[in-house]
Amino acid sequence: MMASSYNAKDEDGHHPGSVGSGGPGAVKSRKPDNTAFKQQRLPAWQPILTAGTVLPAFFTIGLVFIPIGIGLFVTSNNIKEFEIDYTGVDKSSPCFHCSHNYSWNSTSACTCSVPFTLEQSFESNVFMYYGLSNFYQNHRRYVKSRDDSQLNGDKSSLVNPSKECEPYRKSDEKAIAPCGAIANSLFNDTLELFYIHPNGNRTPIHLVKTGIAWWTDKHVKFRNPGGHDKNLSVAFQETSKPVNWLKPVYELDPTDPDNNGFINEDFIVWMRTAALPTFRKLFRIIQKKKDSNTPTLQPGNYTLEVTYNYPVRSFDGRKRMILSTISWMGGKNPFLGIAYMTVGAVCFFLGVVLLIIHHKYGNRNNNADIPN
Amino acid sequence: MTWTDPLTLIRHGWARHKDTEGPIRRVVSNLPFEDLKKRDQPNRQYEGNGIKTNKYRLWSFIPMNLFEQFHRMANLYFMGLAILNFVPMVNAFQPEVALIPICIILALTAVKDGWEDFRRYQADQQLNNMPCFIFSRKQMCFVERRWKDVRVGDFVRVLSNQIIPADILLLHTSDPNGVCHMETANLDGETSLNQRKVLPGFSTLGEPFQPQTFDSTVVCENPNNNLNLFKGYLERPDKRRTGFGIDSLLLRGCTVRNTDEAAGIVVYAGHETKSMLNNSGPRCKRSKIERKMNTDVLFCVVLLFFMCLIAALGHTIWLETFDSEPPYIVPDSNGNYTPSVLAGFYMFLTMIILLQIMIPVSLYVSIELVKMGQIYFITQDLELYDEELDTRVQCRSLNITEDLGQIQYVFSDKTGTLTQNKMVFRRCTIMGTEYSHAENAARLAVLNGANEEEEVTIYQQTKLPPLFPLDELQDTQDKNHTNPQVTAANLRRSKATAGAQGDMAFSSPLETVVVPDWKLKLEVDHQTGPYLDFFLSLAICNTVVVSTVTSQRQRVTGRRNSSYSSSSFSSMRDWFRKRSVQKVFTCMKFSRRTDEKLADPFVIDDDDPDILHIPRVSDTTEDHPYFISRKVTSNKGKHSPADSEEVCYEAHSPDEAALIHAAKAYGFTMVERTPHHVTVKLPNDVLMKFEVLDVLTFDSTRRRMSIIVRHPDTNEIIMYTKGADSAIMERLRDVFSDMSQPDKQIAVKTQKDLDMYAEDGLRTLCFAKKVIGEDEYRAWSAIRQEALSAIDEKEERLMDSANCIENNFSLLGATGIEDRLQENVPESIQALRRAGMQVWVLTGDKAETAINIAYSCKLLDNEDLVVTFTTMKKSVCKMRLEDTLGEARRSAGMNSQFRGHNATFTGSSVEPSIGLVIDGPTLSMAMSDELVDQFVELCKHCRAVLCCRVTPLQKSDVVKLIRHKLRVMTLAIGDGANDVNMIQAADVGIGVSGQEGMQAVMASDFAITRFKHLQRLLLVHGHWCYSRLANMVIYFFYKNVAYVNLLFWYQFFCGFSATAMIDYWLMIFFNLFFTSAPPIMFGIMDKEVSDSTLLSLPELYRRGQHTEGYRRSTFWIAILDAFYQSLVCFFIPYWTYNGSDIGIFSFGTPMNTISLFTIILHLAIEIKSWTVVHWAIMIGSVVMYFIVTLAYSAICISCNPPSDPYWIMHKQMADPMFYLVCILTTVVALLPRYTFHVLKGTLAPSSHLRARQLERLPPSLLPGAEDQRGAWPRRHVRVLLTRVPETHKNSAP
Fold it and tell me: Where is this region: Disordered (chain A) (predicted)?
């Protein structure tokens, strides 16, 4: 019976076993199974979206969102933040001379000091950020221009970095470590904070430079070649420093071997490319003093001493220094709180509108269907 | 997937090359060359019998499959993009990674193709290795080989019930008459037996077949796919030629029956056999949605182009703003910076790569999957399963399921489609006297009623034991009233049993049992000449084959016919046993009675008082004792073959079956038929053996068939002819010269009766006889032989020869055969019309018959104005057309005015109710160029159109005309070979697998067994498939645009540098795993309105007709919504994280998550009914997202360099802000759509929504709701209808 009809059966293709049933006697009924699934009779929940049925949803959203919004807004407002632009665009700005005279090729450092006043005291830990504007760290070619296995301590990648690093891959026939455009453009200003006592004394504020990178980055993703014990200058001896760098990678923080080379936290933070052209990056942490009576930063006059190395004039950029406390929701940002409140209010309003509609029209519709 | 298999192409190329030697094939015996090498074989150029339907070989699978897949535009597009990604200047991702999606899609398709191909391969192997017997010269006998070893020129022997391995020219059979029966069910589904004859000159009786002596050359035509045509001749060494035709060819795939052994020479083998050439692959049609979708894909391309253009311009302008190069612009490897304009151009290409999924690549794959699922559910539907034939609905076309939901015009065949094609003998007229067969009519009426009330009737009977004093059954008058019911129940039961076994063609009791008209019976018993002739012609003028129970062919289904009586009896008894115990006694008595009745359903004689006949002729039995006494005597001492064995008839057409059973009812039983003899048992038990001189078979041009026999007693040569009335009447003996007055009167009277039959909706056949003189016959026989052996223009010559003898008839009489309507046809037609479909009937029958059927199936109403167009003159046709059109326009205008005033109610009852009846010749005039527009417009105004006397070609012309002129979706449904054209011309072709073979089914997209299934197929499955697929396609567009736009918005913040803030692997996963299953499930399983509601409210179907599910506006709304949602999904995180220290991929992670939530919940809003599967897949997708993302970002430290997914997801998930952003964004993104749905559901609910609300009501409030097909109260419908916008009704073209 298979002789020529199997093709026709193949066409519908959905009768399991129809092909194999050769010869008489082997045929079973082709009656479909009477199961809820096959007969499309599975028990189903069939929501009908009408004003009446969704009213609770709208009111619930409204009632939940507004408190969340208020909470977020209050939290955000409690965060203290201070921001100062030290780019030196204005002539009056203390860093004006530096910004104009400095380029990547300069060898001598230019320093300037920016005075500022804090009106409020900063309690708890204060996070010190540097901020860059108009810096497109998210440019596609820029983002790609790195070699993660090199940064992970891979020996072969160290001397033979990925092609993605071009043209910052080799200099003078030596592999660049760390290679690529991201590393090459490492932010290298040095920022120092001094508290000016009312009596004119300058007290340097202790800035902690570890703990600013993700733990996983520091301990898993970034590794120095050759492990911890070895002398970094030996490990990096076959490489050359990135073009724009003043010193090689193993001299990023000569004082602390756990913060040197690829696992230097400033470097790690920089390597996590920012999502948007205006961004901040964590630079230092001012830790709350042990005796918790005095605030971390008391109101008063301060000076920001800048070693101005990083040129931003070419792309019309801005450099900022930001001091901020943080809460569970991160830095200061009132947007989410406002958004929550707005959306909650809108939902609540819609709920009211739907309630009216439901009373006016909903009943009429339902009644029309139900014979008495 | 429309590609041609290159192997076939090559094969065909070869074949063509080989065939250049001529249009004929010469085959000689292989035996003398048995030991020679292959290249010395005479038949070497012909294909062997091994078949290979699989496309690929193991080694060539990958290249060939890829080659085929790249015939698809979408695959090419994505491959092109992937290759573009290898160009360093423009690449957006790592080149290797960009290959992944396209590779996965190709691999999936390849696996699917490979699996299908492997199944084909296995089936081929199974066939190729089947055993068969080939003659070997060495062993001088038939040896067992495999099918694949058979070559052209081999001699093959086939035993009974074996399958024929190749096309074999029949040279020998074990049958003394040189015939071989074969069952072609595998080929065309026909269950009747076909008779094949041994080539003339080879039917040497009793001698064993000796192939080694075969020294002739077989000359025949080249292989073709015509199953009914084969011609050639045998050339003997002395150049004598013997012609042969299809009736000597055993076809591959058929089964030999009733014949112990047959042998012959193979002429076609393997792929060249007729059955293989008839195997065309599945049909490939583009559905309407897909055509529309393709334009929308183009819109997407345009959109993509503009987005890329914006990015390119943006990039150029952005680059121009810098005086010197900033550190974040990376020069190329030589340290040079690309000029900004060129960079912009590169950016354009890069953006195409980045935003490529704007063109939904997975859409095509998903649609295929969805359609597979939809087809699965259609074929699984129990309601569409036919218990009797053990057949499910067949979906032969894989990709037009949703077209079923958009049908606007239905073109239906009549016979076998609307009607059962189970012919029932109703009346006859002999020599001008009409015999009404009133009792037979009464029996049929009862049968009809029993169809519906079977169970009830039987139940009542068992409850009335005192009414059954068994032996006095026919004595008491008032008990007779109950009897028709009993009989009906019995018959119904036996019919059901017979039907369930499905073992005999046209042999249900309904058709076989004829109650003779007693008046006619009397006449017959007097045995007056014309009556004898009439019944003789009924009995022998046909091609019916007799098979007896003992030699009953064994069905492939394994059911034996011989178990018929006993099984029906036992099942009957079982059934009665289930009844209450107290009633067992009466039940058993009852069933015994049943047993007697059923034991021999074919012979209507009983020694017992006949419960079948007597009650209804009881008024007359007293007056006609002869009737019964004759029966009794005739049944005494009967030992004729017909009585000792059951006679089963295998008829080609139901008409023939009906006629031969009618003849049998009057005692004229055909007992045996061989090619040369036909034996008839006369009522007086005399066996008459007629020698058959020739049979002029039926064809549609002559519309008659004749048999020429030699009368055993008188030795006269007599030709009996039956045919359509026109075909016979015009060939009667000349009216003016020698036609005598009574003859003329007979002709006139018969014609009058015929007209009456036609009005009653009966099919009419005329019977005539002609006595041929010996000389005349001899002269004609010579012409005939010449025609038979001709190879060129054989048909014409055969036809001429037939025409030349078929004249000067003397009329015997005519019969009226009823073709009963199928069950639920009127209801189905009404439902289809309520659903807004125009139903046309195209039939080859007479206008009167067609109109009658149209009334009875509610196609025409009594109030309808029926306009009949039958004219021979074009001018008349034109005039009438204009008149009717004017009238139609007026009434339509009035109606629209009326509707304007009563806008609240627009039922279908105010549609113009004109019924148009047009016959074939007039139709061709109306379809001529100058009248066609008017005709089409008139048709638009008509409630029903009936085309009668149309040819198959006209049927398809009508379909094409309406389809192209009105631009509507058409459906054609038919069951016969004459409907094939029409089925192929329509958008959707439906084949009814019924009594007339499988040609229609083979040509169709869907095959059903009953017309009533059409209702469910269209209203339920069509509607579901349409709205499911439409929603899914829209959703797919939305999904891709919404996701891709996230990337686009980001370009404004990364200097248009084509950065993706989402890890590329996660992007791939997003489309492949996280969001692919829900829409597919949505497309397969969503159910807005339940099937019972759809059936009771056919009006809901109109949404699909007006393509409301998928309009251009729907598409653009979806796109706009996608834009809005992507804006929300991008900018809420943007503002949240703006100015912070967030990294690129930490920024993208919440967006990806938000997108997932939005896209999934968007679907959740659209899903209308949530089953377990829905919940599982929706929740599963979200869970999978988190698991995969977490795992990926935990494992991948530096595996995907630029994106560094390491620990990002964990970091984000530890941050409460992440959740706050996700929740807020999802709510904002979905709020408009949700609110819109809510407002629409409250203020302007669609008819579907209202139907769903109706479903919610408790059943007690819905009278009739418990009955699936019962119409809902008119009031509900009206409420619903008021919601169907007015414009839609009028905009129907």
Answer: 1-33, 146-165
